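ok so I'm stuck.
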Amino acid sequence: MKTKTAKNIVYYIIVIAIVLVFIYPFWWMVTNSLNSINEIFGKPSLLPKSWLWHNYIEIFRVQPFARHYLNTIIVALLGTGGNVLISALSGYAFARLRFPGRSALFVLLLTALMMPIEVTIVPMYFMMNGIGANDTLVPLVLIPIFCSQGAFSAFLLRQHFITVPKELEEAARLDGLKPAGIFFRIMLPISVPVLSSAAILAFLSVWNMYLEPLVFVSSLNKFTLPLSLANFNDTYGLPQWNLQLAATTLSVIPVMTFYLIFQTKISNAMVNSGMK
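replied:
not stuck anymore, here's the structure
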């Protein structure tokens, strides 16, 4: 009994130590977002020294941060929604439908996974410029849907749909469901865990995009959060660290909320599937 208690104590000590390693950077960010620049680089402290709440007000005065925040939310929601929908349709087609050139198209899809954005950014710039989409949010929505992130989501869902028993589709056909009905009423509901995983990965990818808005966006009011965070500089071009930390703290909130919502859906779906 004593040996088991000692093992539990050691286990909890290790878990707490690991948790502290991951939590401390976030805690440091939140704490120093309420400090002045000099206090940030002074003696470390677990609590703010000055409690400068006006840092959070100042970030909206220095630049149109609220607009940047809204731009990022719009791009993230549209990009994530389009990514999940298009990848689910293409993944189902590659897994279940028979059509000429399916294998060749799937190999072409896989090559997109190995193509970094730095390789395709220049031709995409000229393509978007040709349709008049530069300096808008349109390229930032389309890139996560049709580029490497979209290819990864399609591959992920294709591998999932292959594992679904064909008897489910055959039973649905016997009940009179059309192909669209089978997809939306049968296949999608049982794919919630995989769809949620694809949504989380796509949302994080879109939210953290830096190179893409740097290339396609030039107007200040079209900036997204990654560009906005790098734009908090003083008159000498030096970073205003306290404002950057305050803005970063606010920018983390939607990511954490989105992750917690979809993590719960993944857990519930797995529990329900296990009960079946």
